[in-house]
Design goal:
510 residues, mainly alpha, 19 helices
Length: 510
C-alpha cells in the first residue's frame, strides 16, 4: 500500500503558503517594524522557509519566471551580493551586515511571491484585500492607542513628539504605510469586478487609514498618497473609480478633521484623554459606516445604470501627464526649499504641529548633499553599506544625528557606488516592465498594485523606507504580484478595463 505524500498539493498548499507570505508584513509590523536585529533575523529565517515551501507547492511549469522577473530578481540578487561584499571596506561591519540581511529578506520574499502568484489569477486577486486588511490592523492598532488610552496602552516614542509612530516606531513609515493602504482601499472600492460588500468595506477602511496618515504629520507620506491616487486614476480612468476615490477622500478628510479637533488625539496632550478618545472613536465609526453606505449606494446606481459610467474624458496621453505631475510633486518642493536662503523663523520639523504641513523645511537636503559628495569621492564602490552614518558625522554642518541618507537611490549611490546603483536600477526596471506588461494585458488586476507601488517609490525616494521591512515587504509583495502575472496575464486576462462597462458590471469576482 502506497502512503500519501505528506507535502501540500496545489491549489490548497499554494493558497496556504501565499497567505503566509501576504500576512508576514502585518506580523513583522508588531516587532518594531522589523527594523532591529532580532526581528529581522526571524523574518529572514521565515522567508527562507516560505521559499522552501514554495518550491514544494508550485508545479515545475510555474518555476520559470518571465524575463522582467529575471531582470528584477537578478538586480536584487546583485544588490544583495554587492552589499555583502561591501562589508570588506565599510567603516563598520554591523550596519553593513544588517543592510545585507535586509536585502536578503526582500530577495527571498520577492522570489517566493513571484513564483506563488503566477497562477491562478484568483490567487493574485487576493493580494490587495489581504494586504489592505493587514495595513488597517497595523494603523488601527496605533490609532486605538490614542482613542482608548485607558484600555490599550501604546507608548509613543519621545522622538515622535506626539506624532503617530506605533507600532512601527517611526511616524513617517507609519504615514507611508497608511498612504499605500489608502491607495489600495480606493482601488478596491472602485473596482467594479469586486464583490459589493468588499467595495463598501474598502471605502470604510480608508477612514482610519487617512486619519492615521494625518496624525503622522508626514508631509512626504501625504504627497505619496496623492501621487498614488493620481496614478490610480490614470491607469483606471473611469467614472466608477473616480467616484470611489472621492468617497474615500471625503470620508477620510472628515475623519481627520474630527481627530484634529481633539487636542489629545492630535498631540497626546490635553485633559480627559479617555473621554476625548472615546468621542472621536464613536465619530470615526459613524463616518466609516457612512462611507460604506455611500459606496453601497454607488454600487447600486452603477448596477442600475442611473449614473455616469464609462471612461473619464482624459486626453490621449494622460499617463504622461500623470507621470509629469508626480515628478513635479517630488522635485519642485525640494528644489524650492533646498534653494532657499531664508529658513523659517519657527522650526516646523518636530512634533505634531500642523505648521509642518505648510513647510518644505527639512534636514534631508543636507543629508543628500553629504551623500552625493560621498559618491563623488567613491564613485565606483561607494563607502560601503551602512557607511553614510560615518560620512555624516565627518561632513555634517548641523548637529542632527542621522544613520541614513533618507533616500533609497541617493543612499545607494553613496554607499554602494555605481555598481550598487546599477543593480537597484535593474530591480526597478524589471518591476516597471512587468507592471507595464500586466497593465496592458490585465488592467483590472494591475491598477491597484501599480498605483500603490508608485506611492511607495515616491516616499522611498525621500525617506529610509527600505530599512523598515514592515513597509517595504508590502511593496515587495505587490511587485512580486506584477512579476508573477507578467508571465501569464496575456492568457488569462479579461479584455476590459475597470471603466464601468456593462460587461464588468455583470462579472463580479471576490
Amino acid at each position: 500500500m502506497r502512503l500519501p505524500s505528506p507535502r501540500l498539493t496545489p491549489p490548497a498548499g499554494r493558497l496556504v503558503v501565499a497567505l503566509i507570505a501576504l500576512v508576514a508584513p502585518t506580523a513583522i509590523a508588531f516587532a518594531d517594524g522589523g527594523y532591529f536585529e532580532g526581528a529581522r533575523a526571524v523574518a529572514l529565517v521565515g522567508a527562507g522557509l516560505v521559499c522552501v515551501l514554495t518550491a514544494l507547492v508550485v508545479p515545475a511549469r510555474d518555476l520559470i519566471p518571465s524575463r522582467p522577473a529575471l531582470l528584477a530578481l537578478g538586480g536584487l540578487a546583485a544588490l544583495t551580493a554587492w552589499t555583502a561584499i561591501s562589508t570588506s571596506w565599510a567603516p563598520s561591519s554591523d550596519p553593513a551586515w544588517a543592510t545585507a540581511e535586509r536585502d536578503a529578506l526582500y530577495l527571498a520574499a520577492l522570489a517566493a511571491t513571484t513564483l506563488l502568484l503566477a497562477e491562478p489569477r484568483a490567487l493574485a486577486r487576493l493580494v490587495e484585500p489581504v494586504l489592505l486588511a493587514g495595513i488597517v490592523v497595523v494603523i488601527g492598532y496605533g490609532l486605538l492607542g490614542r482613542l482608548l488610552p485607558d484600555i490599550l496602552n501604546v507608548v509613543s516614542s519621545p522622538s515622535a513628539g506626539g506624532r503617530l509612530d506605533q507600532p512601527l516606531t517611526y511616524w513617517n513609515a507609519v504615514g507611508a504605510l497608511a498612504a499605500v493602504g489608502t491607495v489600495l482601499a480606493a482601488r478596491l472600492a472602485g473596482d467594479d469586478t469586486r464583490a459589493p460588500m468588499l467595495r463598501s468595506a474598502a471605502a470604510a477602511a480608508a477612514v482610519p487609514l487617512l486619519v492615521g496618515l494625518y496624525l503622522t504629520f508626514s508631509r512626504g507620506a501625504i504627497a505619496a498618497c496623492v501621487a498614488g491616487l493620481v496614478v490610480l486614476l490614470a491607469v483606471a480612468p473611469s467614472f466608477t473609480q473616480l467616484r470611489a476615490a472621492v468617497i474615500v477622500a471625503e470620508a477620510g478628510v472628515i475623519g481627520a478633521a474630527l481627530a484634529a479637533a481633539s487636542p489629545y488625539v492630535r498631540t497626546l496632550h490635553g485633559s480627559h484623554p479617555g473621554l476625548q478618545g472615546a468621542a472621536v472613536l464613536i465619530a470615526l465609526l459613524a463616518i466609516m459606516l457612512l462611507a460604506a453606505l455611500t459606496q453601497t449606494w454607488a454600487v447600486r446606481v452603477e448596477r442600475d445604470g442611473t449614473t455616469r459610467l464609462g471612461r473619464l474624458p482624459l486626453p490621449r496621453h494622460h499617463g504622461y501627464v500623470a507621470a509629469a505631475l508626480v515628478a513635479a510633486m517630488l522635485v519642485v518642493p525640494v528644489a524650492i526649499a533646498a534653494g532657499s536662503d531664508t529658513p523659517s523663523s519657527v522650526d516646523p520639523r518636530f512634533g505634531s504641529s500642523t505648521s509642518r504641513l505648510a513647510s518644505a523645511d527639512s534636514p534631508r537636503y543636507e543629508y543628500w548633499r553629504v551623500a552625493i559628495e560621498s559618491f563623488a569621492d567613491h564613485p565606483v564602490q561607494g563607502v560601503g553599506a551602512g557607511g553614510f552614518a560615518v560620512e555624516w558625522l565627518r561632513e555634517r554642518t548641523e548637529a542632527n544625528p542621522a544613520r541614513d541618507a533618507h533616500s533609497l537611490p541617493i543612499e545607494t549611490l553613496a554607499e554602494l557606488g555605481i555598481i550598487g546603483a546599477a543593480a537597484l536600477a535593474l530591480l526597478i526596471a524589471g518591476i516597471a516592465i512587468a507592471t507595464r506588461r500586466v497593465l496592458r494585458a490585465d488592467p483590472v488586476l494591475a491598477a491597484g498594485p501599480a498605483a500603490a507601488l508608485v506611492a511607495y517609490a515616491f516616499h522611498a525616494s525621500i525617506d529610509w523606507d527600505w530599512e523598515m521591512p514592515a513597509l517595504s515587504l508590502v511593496a515587495v509583495v505587490l511587485a512580486g504580484q506584477m512579476l508573477a502575472r507578467s508571465r501569464t496575464s496575456t492568457a488569462t486576462a479579461p479584455s476590459t478595463t475597470s471603466a464601468g462597462s456593462a460587461a464588468n458590471r455583470n462579472r463580479v469576482e471576490p
